[in-house]
Write a structure and sequence with these properties.
Elements lengths: L14 H7 L26 H15 L3 H13 L31 H14 L6 H15 L31 H9 L5 H8 L6 E3 L5 H4 L13 H10 L8 E3 L11 H6 L7 H8 L4 H9 L1 H15 L22
Antiparallel strand pairs: 1-2
Helix pairs in contact: 2-4, 2-5, 3-5, 12-13
Length: 332
């Protein structure tokens, strides 16, 4: 995803903190999928999906990185309070919203969601939620990038709360165990975590999030010994200017194509982020990574299931939340 899905050092080591800040989650509580349905707007706004698809397609023609931007936005929104578009809310003088948190540095695509929302408000006033717009736009962008096409159940409502203090995402230097714990808290398995990380196949990361691997890994004064030497030289050249926090593709070969090349690279020690390389080497995840590297169809099938599951956990429905008129502001 644009920059990385995982850009902030995790705080899951301090589990008490996570339980306090994410009080609506519980590792031992049953997390059930919401009763969303495909075609939720069939009668209330029948053209919603075609409108979103057309706007996303026009943007994709101009900028193919929109796929990674929307994937990252979808993930970052869903990981906090479920997929309720709380990430889209702007900060105010009395509240620092999610998008202001360090982990959301570099999240982009807000103006695209604004454009879609404005178009839908003209066509179907206060009918389609911002949360559903993100989910549908992400689906369309993935398909345009060569990824699988899949149905998105809709019917989400928009959240009323957005606090930067609640943003707690696993980071690029997380261990597999740390990241696994964070995903488990959201009802996602280790294999599902590995699939979500596969979205890095169309992503980039700022040099600052992997710089230590290039020259001073864990304070050693040397590069990470596990990184491929050819990749190391390439990344050092990209990140040579310390005055600029440049970006590097997480998939060095098919950077704008949604495929399993990411897995092919990490099994060859060509993972850019530490967490990417770690899932290819950890005993708990390496076997599944190898299977995904060998079978693009397997990745596509698993991805469609996991992205739909992620988008259906802990969402607001019915009379919960609201349908925002402006995705950046709660209705007054």
């Amino acid at each position: 995803m644009h920059e990385s899905l995982l850009i902030q050092r995790t705080m899951v080591k301090n589990y008490n903190f996570m339980k306090a800040s994410l009080v609506y989650l519980c590792v031992t509580c049953p997390l059930t999928l919401a009763s969303l349905r495909v075609g939720f707007y069939k009668n209330s706004c029948p053209s919603v999906e075609s409108i979103i698809r057309d706007i996303v397609e026009r943007r994709f023609v101009e900028d193919k990185s929109v796929a990674s931007a929307l994937l990252r936005m979808h993930y970052h929104d869903c990981f906090i309070r479920g997929c309720d578009a709380s990430l889209l809310i702007d900060s105010t003088h009395s509240n620092q919203a999610e998008k202001a948190a360090g982990a959301n540095f570099g999240v982009r695509g807000y103006e695209l969601i604004d454009k879609i929302k404005a178009t839908l408000e003209d066509k179907c006033p206060q009918t389609v939620s911002c949360a559903d717009i993100i989910a549908l736009a992400t689906r369309d962008a993935v398909g345009l990038a060569g990824g699988p096409k899949y149905d998105v159940p809709t019917g989400r409502r928009d959240g009323l709360i957005s606090r930067s203090s609640e943003v707690n995402l696993p980071g690029p230097s997380s261990t597999v165990s740390e990241a696994r714990l964070a995903f488990k808290a959201h009802g996602l398995t280790l294999n599902e975590m590995v699939i979500i990380l596969g979205a890095h196949t169309v992503g980039t990361a700022h040099c600052s999030f992997f710089q230590d691997r290039l020259s001073n890994f864990r304070g050693s004064g040397a590069a990470d010994p596990k990184i491929d030497q050819e990749l190391l030289k390439k990344l050092k050249k990209i990140c040579g200017l310390k005055s600029e926090d440049r970006t590097a593709f997480l998939d060095q070969n098919t950077s704008f194509v949604f495929d399993n090349m990411y897995y092919k690279q990490i099994v060859r020690r060509k993972g850019v982020l530490q967490i990417d390389q770690a899932i290819a080497e950890d005993k708990a995840s390496s076997v599944f990574v190898a299977k995904l590297a060998a079978n693009n169809g397997l990745f596509r099938r698993h991805f469609t299931k996991v992205i739909v599951k992620l988008g259906s956990l802990l969402v607001l429905e019915g009379n919960e939340g609201e349908i925002r008129r402006n995705c950046r502001v709660q209705n007054g």
